[in-house]
Amino acid sequence: MSMATSVMPPWISLLPREELLYLYAAAVAVTAWCAVRALEWAWWRPRRLGRALRSQGLRGTAYRPVAGDTPLMQLLNKEARSRAMPLGRGCHDIVPRAMPLFHRAMQEHGKISFTWFGPVPRVTISKPELVREVLSNKFGHFEKLKFGRLQRMLHNGVGSHEGEKWAKHRRIINPTFHMEKLKRMLPAFATCCTELVERWEGLALAAGDAPCEVDVWPDMQNLTGDVISRAAFGSSYLEGRRIFQLQGEQLELVTLAMSKLHIPGYMLLPTKANRRMKQIAGEIERVLKGIIAKRESAMRAGEATSDDLLGLLLESNMAHCRDDSNAGTGITTDEVIGECKLFYFAGAETTSVLLTWTLILLCMHPEWQDRAREEVLRVLGPDGTPDHDALGRLRVVTMVLYEALRLYTPLTAIHRETYKPMELGGVRYPAGVVLMLPLLCVHHDREVWGADADEFRPERFAEGVSGAAAAPAFFPFGWGPRVCVGQNFAMLEAKMGIAAVLRRFSLQLSPDYTHAPFPVGMLQPQHGAQLRLKSLLDHM
Ligand code: HEM
């Protein structure tokens, strides 16, 4: 018996000869179609797109089939992560460590150059005026990257929608972030801050005369997780906390999976990580469904207030559904779940790294720590919950936060894709090109910010963001129609958090602190943020 017949199912030999021939022909046709598709995806298309870019004067790395620059990026990231940065002069020059592939590509091929994200060309656009043009998306040709299965594991809210669906969700969500509503959330912010500083007071007391050392990064993650839990879910915030823990683990698994080769269908393989990601997604969904169901029935019974984000979201939803003229404009429960997941992801991770880097910067620059504390005590006094107007008078704290957002931009890059041929800066981009807007590189660009671009100088923002000379190059919250919906929320929370800490503690870097900024989703301190805290209660 030949090899071929031995692997065939027995029923094949029962088929008439003519049907057998059809079957063979169909198998050959399907195999040939798959081979052509695979070749188009892995070879012809990338070659075509690469040629279209090069013919217009753009330079970039050579295409390596299927993997593109992924192996090189992994190698450069590994090298970068293995070396810490020195403290002192030059320590804020973090682009080569945080984005080694793009830094190298820009040095070798220019500010507008390309690398390969698997078989897709990824053009780095680092000129501020072009970043604005892409983000303003005047003609609607630059869209967000389509969310794959992997990203949907993290969230699937307004941030990943396009067109009509995005506009509808943004319309419903916008009012939940109006200043009047945010003001009502301030007591929740204050409760979380008080819990944190009281816990630190306990640690300082227990340490006695020895220095009290704390890795403030996990504490800032817990703080922002708590804030978003209370702001989003009010009285259900303890259940919300569980979601926050799960989202943190999910982010790590997804980031790891995304750095692997870009193999279609990889997510379907039953690997240990893939199974865990599905398990986490399922648990998050279960917890959220429980919270939403409880709230909906309470709202129907007229029991629940709607000052938290979930209440406001459900209220807008119910109002849209009630109003016949708006039939179909409401959002479904699954969509509310998608938005809640996004609030956690977008709201907690980003603000926690902002707070962490700000505290590290205040330790590195004690003169600014003193100035900020003096202002906090003068404007807010030594205790009590600050109101919105008082937080608005914290000029120095705001300048410090903006400078932290510039130097240690939480979201280091934003991506868009061309879905139609589009002209930008004199180059005609074909459809199917990814545009990478490296916010961190723009924020560190000496041609834009001056020779001291890598130095911590909050006075750049003495006249606010709009007064800063290089303001058009400042994008920590994005720009245009898709600008961060939570930026006022984040700034209020950050001011409240920094003020609460400065009122009660003086801070220093611990000798154990290693300066190692690196993006895992957000720009994180790779080895933690170990600080020494000294309680100021005795001195007041
Ligand atoms: C320091 C804190 C924060 C930073 C640096 C930040 C940064 C950003 C950036 C850069 C974008 C634009 C992404 C793009 O254009 O592709 C964005 C969008 C978004 N952010 Fe934030 N964010 C922060 C805090 C928050 C908070 C606290 C929330 C909510 C509670 C939030 C919710 C959102 C949402 C929903 C979007 C999507 C908007 C849309 O696509 O229409 N963010 N954020």
TrEMBL record:
Primary subcellular site in the record, as a coarse category: membrane
GO biological process: lipid metabolic process
Keywords tagged on the record: Heme, Iron, Membrane, Metal-binding, Monooxygenase, Oxidoreductase, Transmembrane, Transmembrane helix
GO cellular component, one term: membrane
Cofactors named for this entry: heme
Binding site for heme: 484
TM ranges: 20-44
Family (UniProt): Belongs to the cytochrome P450 family.
Protein name as catalogued: Predicted protein
Organism for this UniProt entry: Hordeum vulgare subsp. vulgare
